[in-house]
Design goal:
This protein has 11 helices and 2 strands; from the N terminus they run αβαβααααααααα. The chain is mainly alpha-helical. It comes from Lentinus brumalis.
């Protein structure tokens, strides 16, 4: 259910982003998607409405150009933007606001981050089997090909630099930073999730407690020049120790999160040419769709009354 909710939000955010009317930093606290039934009425059909994952998985698709609204995206911060013709995302007061634990690293410091992940990357995920068939039925082969790598040497159609530029480019808040916020939201939710039939731990392991402390206590610095983002340690963890952060019943989801982590790790502002605005949203949608298809009959129920502990027995 967590992944379904995340996948619902990604295409909704892509749609609203084009309208420039959405809070730039989505988190579980300020944006939600509520699905509901809507009777077909004049004016509700559009080729721009997002297609929800349930419709894709069940092949319950309207003809292209006749998609109908099937949900409400609720954004309590939206009133800040009403009446504004354009949001100046170079403005410091806009670009360094957000929920600290979920804010993208570059947004947090108001400049492109300077981590070495930006010198390497992962290509756009390819879909296989039923997942690719469902994608093409929903969005068309043209969109699939649009985001496909045209060369074995590119990632998202771009080439990473051999070194970071000096001086750094001017920071602009881009949709890729919103995708990173989605990753942080997923990471926190799944790290904390307790499977209904899974073993309940009395205390968190020391490594989980230390990781949660870094995430939970992260703050937006007053002076970014002297700041170290301790969440960055997460991007240096290899696949095997990464899986040990999560409940054993959620190891497959942990691998999905690891793949998403590899996509959001670089600062793509340095790459040539800069990838399309919604390339990371596309990558996340593909990864989650492939996972949901492959785990269609392996849904893991979560315990709504208990969260996994994040405090260690030893200080």
């Amino acid at each position: 259910m967590v992944l379904l909710c995340i996948h619902r939000f990604i295409p909704a955010q892509r749609t609203f982003r084009r309208c420039r009317d959405l809070s730039p930093k989505p988190t579980i606290h300020n944006v939600s998607v509520h699905l509901h039934s809507m009777k077909p009425q004049e004016g509700h059909a559009s080729e721009n409405w997002p297609i929800y994952i349930e419709d894709i998985l069940h092949r319950d698709l309207q003809p292209r150009g006749q998609h109908r609204a099937s949900g409400l995206l609720i954004d309590p911060d939206r009133d800040r933007n009403i009446g504004a013709d354009y949001i100046d995302e170079r403005n410091m007061s806009v670009r360094r606001k957000g929920t600290p634990r979920y804010i993208a690293r570059s947004v947090c410091i108001g400049q492109p981050h300077m981590q070495t992940h930006s010198l390497d990357g992962r290509p756009m995920p390819t879909l296989t089997g039923e997942a690719k068939l469902l994608y093409v039925q929903a969005y068309g082969q043209e969109r699939y090909d649009q985001f496909a790598e045209k060369s074995p040497f590119t990632c998202h159609g771009a080439i990473p630099p051999s070194d970071l530029p000096d001086p750094l480019p001017v920071f602009v808040h881009r949709p890729c930073h919103d995708a990173e916020s989605i990753f942080w939201t997923m990471f926190a939710a799944i790290l904390h999730a307790q499977p209904a039939s899974g073993t309940r731990e009395p205390w968190a392991s020391k490594r989980v407690a230390e990781l949660w402390k870094k995430l939970h206590e992260h703050e937006i610095p007053d002076n970014p020049a002297d700041y170290d983002d301790h969440r960055e340690d997460i991007f240096h963890t290899l696949a095997l120790p990464w899986a040990r952060y999560f409940h054993p019943d959620l190891r497959d989801v942990a691998q999905l999160l690891y793949d998403i982590r590899c996509q959001v790790a670089p600062e793509y502002e340095y790459w040539t040419p800069r990838p399309p605005d919604d390339y990371l949203h596309e990558a996340l949608q593909r990864l989650i769709l492939q996972y949901l298809v492959e785990h269609r009959d392996k849904d893991i129920a979560l315990d709504p009354d208990h969260l996994r502990p994040t405090q260690s027995a030893y200080p």
